[in-house]
Amino acid sequence: MENNEVIKKKIFSGVQPSGKLTIGNYxxxxxxxxEFEESYDxxxxxxxxxxxxxxxDPAELRRRTYETLALYIASGLDPEKNTLFVQSHVPAxxxxxxxxxxxxMHGELNRMTQFKDKSKKYASNINAxxxxxxxxxxxxxxxxxxxxxxVGIDQMQHIELTRDIANRFNQVYGExxxxxxxxxxxxxxxxxxxxxxxxxxxxxxxxxxxxxxxxDNRDDIIRKFKRAVTDSDTVVRRAEGKDGINNLMxxxxxxxxxxxxxxxxxxxxxxxxHFKLAVGETVADAxxxxxxxxxxxxxxxxxxxxxxxxGSSRASxxxxxxxxxxxxxxxxxxxx
Length: 336
Ligand code: AQP
Fold this sequence. Notes:
The protein is mainly alpha-helical. It has 13 helices and five strands. It folds into two domains: 206 residues, Rossmann fold, CATH 3.40.50; 78 residues, Orthogonal Bundle (Tyrosyl-Transfer RNA Synthetase), CATH 1.10.240.10. The longest helix is centred in the last third of the chain and has 30 residues. It is globular and about 75 Å long. The protein starts with 8 loop residues before the first strand and ends in a 6-residue tail after the last helix. Bound molecules: adenosine-5'-tetraphosphate.
């Protein structure tokens, strides 16, 4: 019998349920995941273990975990075709993380810009988990023999570290982990804050006007774009020093596919007001169906729990295979 089965490459990615998801999270990651559905084996996780590196309210963390999973599905991911699960439901993530902690160097973790940024932001809680966060992320990725990791630019340094850890381990013990590559979207790899456009848009920003959330209502989305910080020029064009306009152009491109030249032509002679309104309306229109589907899913907890259970049993099967290989290689006993 002819064997036509093609072994698909693996994709892994995730989002922390650490707040209301922004259009940065959407454009940098979730929105792009759908396109891989047919040609890759896709594994997407709600990374709750990562979220507790910053203090979380327990009830809110629980709610946001359901919400994040619902947003994955509402953004178009089919749970039959993609493995969707919650990180803490698959203990192998924490187990591999311990092992890899012993193959990650203090000096390299100390160089991570996210650790430096978050240490400043959460100065009263610089815990060890915040420091070893990239090792847990490496474990998430390496457990599934991942080939491609679609993320925003801010996570690329962690992907590089993941590759270094995997190569180091492979050199000592022989081929154990696939070496993953990052995948950065063409538009939206780094969406900036609407209030301080030189800063990344983040779900944990305390200024709620700085971020547009995926689930914001239409009026709020349009209002936030109208108030977006720009500059004293009036011409819509991409240029150095026009961080606010550059960011709005990036967002508009990510939602419409229009090029810079097309955008500049569309708003020629119209000024910033017209442009901001158009971006706001476009984003609101694009997100409206996601919100409708999200509301429907959140009303069906049993369905979401079914997806979680099914996803974690599929993920556990794959994760266990890698973990037992690692345990064997480092010399742990494994009685039958
Ligand atoms: N502003 C952004 N532009 C493009 N992509 C972004 N991502 C985050 N912010 C932007 C991408 O979203 C995915 C999930 O991110 P995460 O939840 O793992 O953590 P993060 O990168 O730390 O995101 P936030 O929103 O800034 O969360 P908080 O405030 O909790 O730290 C990743 O692929 C990330 O690149």
